């Protein structure tokens, strides 16, 4: 889901103080699998293929929209229990040149 005009009103930090100059960002929301089965090599391969597809689709969408800067979340590595090492490797592989659609991100 694309939310193309989200206003950032507060800064970072423990106080989250109001910003003197709020700014606008786009937010792309995409779901990760919930508690994926990676208990066997076959299950792990299926999971990695699904996540590679989702990551390529997400990055391709961002490139098509013309976005150059991305802030990536833990994408499922918290409550959804996706394996962080696999998710990180798949994102790294997708972002290293040549990246999806030949796009480059900051």
TrEMBL record:
Q: Which domain of life is it from?
A: Eukaryota
List, alphabetically, the Gene3D superfamilies matched.
Leucine Aminopeptidase, subunit E, domain 1
By what name is this protein known? Microbial-type PARG catalytic domain-containing protein
Give the originating organism.
Zooxanthella nutricula
């Amino acid at each position: 889901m694309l939310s193309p005009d989200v206003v950032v009103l507060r800064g970072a930090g423990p106080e989250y103080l109001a910003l003197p100059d709020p700014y606008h960002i786009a937010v792309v929301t995409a779901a990760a699998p919930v508690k994926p089965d990676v208990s066997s090599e076959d299950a792990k391969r299926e999971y990695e293929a699904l996540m590679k597809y989702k990551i390529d689709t997400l990055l391709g969408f961002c490139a098509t929209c013309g976005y150059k800067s991305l802030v990536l979340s833990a994408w499922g590595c918290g409550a959804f229990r996706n394996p962080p090492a696999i998710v990180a490797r798949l994102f790294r592989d997708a972002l290293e040149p040549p990246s999806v659609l030949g796009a480059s991100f900051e």
